[in-house]
Amino acid sequence: MTKYCFDASALIDLGERHYPERLPLFEPIWTFIYGGIENGDIVSVDYVKTELKRKADNWREDFVVRADKMFQISVDVELEYASVIAAVESHSGLPVNKARDRFLSGADPWVIALARDIKNCAAVSAERKPLKDYGLGAICVELSVRHINLVEFFEENGIGQ
Q1: What's the chain's average pLDDT?
Q2: Taking 90 as the threshold, does the pLDDT of residue 123 lie above it?
Q3: For residue 25, what pLDDT is reported?
């Protein structure tokens, strides 16, 4: 069974931009999301929780409490994170620039680390197409980690069919 490691962008798109939880129309999406969190198929890292809290509104505050079980960190994930950072820093095809610094300072490397640690896990973000050089999708491609966007997540799980 595939597990899904959500980035902050995917959660923000879900709850604030496109599929507000407060609208009954989107209840099947949220039932699936919370069910996946409860059974451990939908996960994320503590650093995503921190990003969500940074600009918290009512929805983010409520979601972080309700979905607290999804946010994880472990020694194994920390070791995998170190491996991700080393791979990015030593990759000859990735330029050293401000985009790299921004990527390395955010939650994205942690999301990739968790997905790598879990093994059969896809990193889920709001990206429709991988950004050039940096961004969750682009680095996932470079590090052979499966990356999907929200629409692909919905299709893969039969949500809305």
Answers
A1: 88
A2: yes
A3: 87
pLDDT recorded at residue 128: 66
Dihedral-angle region of residue 123 (phi above 0 means left; psi in -120 to 50 means alpha; beta otherwise): beta
Which residue, chain included where needed, has tokens 């996960």? 43
Residues 63, 10, 117, 32: is their CA dihedral positive or negative?
Answer: positive
Distance CA 131, CA 127 (A): 8
Domains of the chain: 3-156 (3.40.50.1010)
Distance CA 74, CA 80 (A): 10
- Alpha-carbon span 90 to 92, nearest angstrom: 6
Contact criterion met (CB below 8 Å) for 107 and 45: yes
Quick: pLDDT tens for 46-87: 999 999 998 878 888 999 999 999 999 999 999 999 999 998
- Give dist(CA 89, CA 61) in Å, integer: 34
Per the structure block, which two tokens stand in for 85? 């950072």
User: Residue 74: helix, strand or coil by DSSP?
Assistant: coil
How far apart, in whole angstroms, are the C-alpha atoms of residue 47 and residue 52? 9
